[in-house]
Write a structure and sequence with these properties.
90 residues; three-stranded antiparallel beta sheet
């Protein structure tokens, strides 16, 4: 099972839901299950990602953008590819 620790924006792979963070030593941390659907917070400011869509002629394209600092992924014709790319940046 993968979990996202909100305190450090880390994803860890463990059997049981963690209740504290080894890295920063925080207890009572916010932990969410990390799945294909989960969006990581912004790698720069920790803000929330927003899905964006537009069209180029007849072709739709998608990207993800940070609500707070405005950093964004490249454009992708595939929605899931854009999401994957957002999660892969560090
Ligand atoms: Zn932490
Ligand atoms: Zn940001």
């Amino acid at each position: 099972m993968k979990y996202l620790l909100k305190c450090c924006s880390r994803v860890i792979d463990v059997d049981n839901k963690p209740i504290w963070c080894i890295k920063c030593g925080e207890h009572d941390i916010e932990v969410i299950e990390f799945t294909e659907e989960t969006l990581l917070p912004c790698p720069f400011c920790g803000g929330d990602a927003m899905a964006q869509a537009s069209t180029w002629g007849a072709n739709p394209f998608y990207w993800y953008e940070c609500e707070d600092c405005g950093c964004m992924t490249a454009d992708f014709s595939d929605f899931y590819e854009a999401k994957k790319r957002w999660n892969q940046r560090n």
